[in-house]
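Run log, item B.
One chain of 295 residues. Sequence copied directly from the ordering sheet:
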Amino acid sequence: METQQLEFVLAAMKADSFAQAARKCYTTRQNVSHAVKATEREFGIVLFRREDKKLVLTEDGKVFSAKAQRVLDIVKEMHQIATHSGPQVSEPLNVAISTTMFSALPSGIVEMLLNWPGGVRFDEMDYEDCIGCVRDGLVDGALVISMNRDYPGCDSFHIATMPVYAWIGRESPLARQQAIALEELEGRRLLLVSKGDSQYRQMFLILRNRGIHDVGYSVITGIDLAHELVKHTDSIGVVSEAFAMSAPDDTVVIPFDGSFPAWQVQLLYQASAETSRRVLALAHFTKKRLSEATR
């Protein structure tokens, strides 16, 4: 039995349905159901019965639940020991995070990061400042989202590639399309919801290489202002998949076509730093959870 299977089963034991357990674990109902059935087959027991459309633990299920929780607690403690070279960590990790990074992640991932064993202190700052702080050793690492892959003076760990979406008003002629091509940006204005434009270097380079030169842009630091501009002008917001799933009702979110550069989520660090093992453990954890959440 894998640890993840046990986590799914325990989540089901604490919920009223497999669907609730799936949301808590950022996976599908089918994965939770499969984990429960596989566990019942492996141990030859029945864990649940249904009462009034709710899951209720059997007596065997209650015994299994208590023992399974102890197993997971032991595994978690072993991971802490292996990751931090000791059962206790004296100081939390100091991690810079680029502006809008948290808003680009599925909501549950943020809570998991905040509860990372040993603790993490997050400091939101501009993309370029994240790179500079890692390069100068002022932080243990930095979580950044950009369209670039070059981080001068930093080691990097690739966590995820995410599609980029166009955020437009419902009355825009583009609102009826399935996707937006780069050529359709000619003569339009892009809204970059960030504190700067340096994380969009790859986008600007691709536009120039495709001969698309008449594209203006504005850097917007507030989502409310960006919303007003999207509604009342022909401007196009450049947003993440997580934002696309909760965009305001009076707007439309459409993917760009495959020629548009994707968002890259990276953990920047210094391989020679004493905390590099802990930082990489955080990166692996984030990558795993993001992968599960986007299946």
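Observations after the first pass:
- The first strand starts at residue 48 and ends at 51.
- The first helix runs from residue 3 to 13.
Flagged for discussion on Thursday.
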